[in-house]
Amino acid sequence: MKLWILRHGEAEPQANTDAERRLTAHGREQVLHSAARLLGQPLQAIIASPYVRAQQTAALVHDTLGFIEPVRTVPWLTPESRMQEVIAEIEQLGLEHVLLVSHQPLVGALVGMLEHGHLQQPARMSTANLAELEGELPPLGVMTLLSSSFAP
């Protein structure tokens, strides 16, 4: 399995709720930079958190890639999601090439868990950071972090 994990781009600091925060102009530029790294990859699905900034990030990636399938919005990719649920949902997808668009602290913890098998080494995931992992799932801790890029 190849899994790309993308943190949303820079978002406005405040909104009525955290879920309503939108990308800034800089955040959109960050996402476009990260999306360019996905050109030519054999993605089967783009799966995103329902939060506005993640939806905007996923839509920018979708449009940049000319991806045919719609973005899948799921409730299990929010900042507070439980790691066990996220991993179980990824396994149930039955896909080999997936992009997840979500938030900290979930994305850092997820990369760390998939790479190391525990939560003691979360990955540093700044805004629009794209991590690329490859390996079998399960077991945990056997995926290889192929790359991690930070958007300017």
**Strand composition percent:** 15-25%
How are the strands of the biggest sheet laid out side by side?
3-2-4-1-5-6
Helix tally equals 4
Class inferred from helices and paired strands = alpha/beta
Distance between the termini: 28 Å
* CATH level 1 class label: Alpha Beta
Shape: globular
Mean pLDDT: 94
Instruction: Give me the count of strands.
Output: 6
CATH 2nd-level architecture: 3-Layer(aba) Sandwich
The helix/strand order is EHEHEHEHEE
Organism: Pseudomonas machongensis
Protein name: Phosphohistidine phosphatase SixA
Pfam family, one: His_Phos_1
Report on the structure:
This is Phosphohistidine phosphatase SixA. It comes from Pseudomonas machongensis. The chain has 152 residues and is of the alpha/beta class. Helix content is 32%, strand content 19%. The protein has helices at residues 25-36, 52-65, 83-93, 106-116, and strands at 2-7, 45-48, 72-73, 97-102, 130-134, 144-149. Helix 2 links the parallel strand 2 (45-48) and strand 3. The protein is globular, with a radius of gyration of 14 Å.
SSE topology:
Blueprint: E1 2-7, H1 25-36, E2 45-48, H2 52-65, E3 72-73, H3 83-93, E4 97-102, H4 106-116, E5 130-134, E6 144-149
Parallel strand pairs: 1-4, 2-3, 2-4
Antiparallel strand pairs: 1-5, 5-6
Helix pairs in contact: 1-2
